[in-house]
Automatic annotation (TrEMBL):
Record key words, sorted: Amino-acid biosynthesis, Aminotransferase, Branched-chain amino acid biosynthesis, Pyridoxal phosphate, Transferase
Organism of derivation: Cinchona calisaya
Enzyme Commission (EC) number: 2.6.1.42
Pfam families named in the record: Aminotran_4
InterPro entries cross-referenced by the UniProt entry: Aminotrans_IV, Aminotrans_IV_CS, Aminotransferase-like, B_amino_transII, BCAT-like_C, BCAT-like_N, BCAT_family
Family per similarity comment: Belongs to the class-IV pyridoxal-phosphate-dependent aminotransferase family.
Name by which UniProt lists this protein: Branched-chain-amino-acid aminotransferase
Amino acid sequence: MEKCGVFAGFHLPNPTYQLLGPSRTAIMLLPPPFFTEKRPLFPLPLQLQKQSHFGLCNCSNGSGNTLRVASPTSNVATELADIDWDNLGFGFIATDYMYIMKCSQGENFSKGELQRFGNIELSPSSAILNYGQGLFEGLKAYRKHDGNILLFRPEENGLRLQMGAERMCMPSPTVEQFVETVKVTVLANERWIPPPGKGSLYIRPLLMGSGAVLGLAPAPEYTFLIYVLPVGNYFKEGLAPINLIVETEMHRATPGGTGGVKAIGNYAAVLKAQSAAKAKGFSDVLYLDSVHKRYLEEVSSCNVFLVKGNVISTPAIKGTILPGITRKSIIDVALSQGFQVEERSVTVDELLDADEVFCTGTAVVVSPVGSITYQGKRVSYGVDGVSQQLYSALTSLQMGLTEDKMDWIVELK
Ligand code: COI
């Protein structure tokens, strides 16, 4: 697949084209193979301007001053959105554009468009609202000091969405469509990508049964939607260690269920245990398997790892655990650093004996666990060793600070 960005039927080579400010007009976008056309296929409702080279970086703080950063799509510095870049958390912020593509049951996604970000219309009888026929994804874009914009393994999210769609009886965009539409949405919202070191642009693709049903059945129509927003740290603790409680009654997933895909309902199912844990002062919940109530599964929004000496262990992917892309990447990074990595059943008793525990996920990145409470007993862990080392290795790669020997980074030049 080509690495250059594609926008509204144009190639975005370097020199590239820039969207000049938000427009209320919908921007028509053509799917691959039309994305690779070098000429516009119809008059564009967008103001596009050819620009030549990078601008200068001048990012200070988010205190109301105009911030400018280098842009690969501009010969002048890109003006950033006027928000407090120094205090980004993980919360909703409305940005400029979202991407929407629809298709009927039995058909393939073929044509979508960028629209101004806003509320969407859904039938009260839609399959997503009534029966939860829906999936989501999560990935991030980073702004590099030279103005380039980096995506981390977006094709992995496209593949995972396809696997989930198969489980949920939905059509799915191809991996190529997924990656291209992510690129288009990120570039359209470029002013919302945090300056280097201040956070990332979180990309949230949704796939849902948007058509109306009443009897339980797959929807007659599907919507693929991508929105984006700038984020900082996921946990309110920031980069400080989190404190988990092991849940012994409620379960996140059951064998044969949808725990292994990113079904929207998986996340509603953990809210009760998570709220109770937070009310008691814990950061989040660690779930056990629903059959033996003995083996570790995952935390509400992320995978879990234990460290003992040179061995790093994590629950194997066996249907109830989400195949995290950060999980998979951390395994490879750890192996490349000489750790032994075991994907297997990990008992809750092993927690008591671990040197370190940490969580991985797109949102949480690599979060050290400071303590785990199980059946009233609290165990504390070291936090400055392995998880810190892996966090640095992964984030340096994601932000373009180290050489991408794994070929994981997609540059939006
Ligand atoms: C992510 O890490 O991207 C997720 O999808 C988890 C979500 C609960 C924030």
